[in-house]
Amino acid sequence: MIKVLIVDDEALARKRIRTLLEQDEQVRVCHECSNGAEAIAAINDISPDLLSLMFKCQN
After folding, report:
1. d(CA 43, CA 28)
2. pLDDT tens across 7-55, in order?
3. 55: Cβ–Cβ under 8 A, 6 or more apart, which residues?
4. DSSP element (H, E) containing 56
5. Amino acid 54: pLDDT
6. Domains in the chain, start-ordered, CATH in brackets?
7. CA neighbor of 9 nearest in space, from 43, 41, 32, 40
8. Which end of the chain is more exposed for a tag (fewer CB within 10 A), N or C?
9. Listed residue (42, 41, 29, 38) closest to 58, CA to CA
């Protein structure tokens, strides 16, 4: 199972990415974040295998 963390400041973008990724049975979106600070905390907590990151996030 591939654990994925999605980081994007737009909720709709996170939803679209989640929908696409979850079509693969080997992928599990384990968390979503809306800014960089949340992402750093989540990375430390869950140690995702893959990070989907929006480059222009706040914080």
Report:
1. 15
2. 999 999 999 999 999 999 999 999 999 998 999 999 999 999 999 988 7
3. none
4. none
5. 82
6. 2-53 (3.40.50.2300)
7. 32
8. N
9. 38
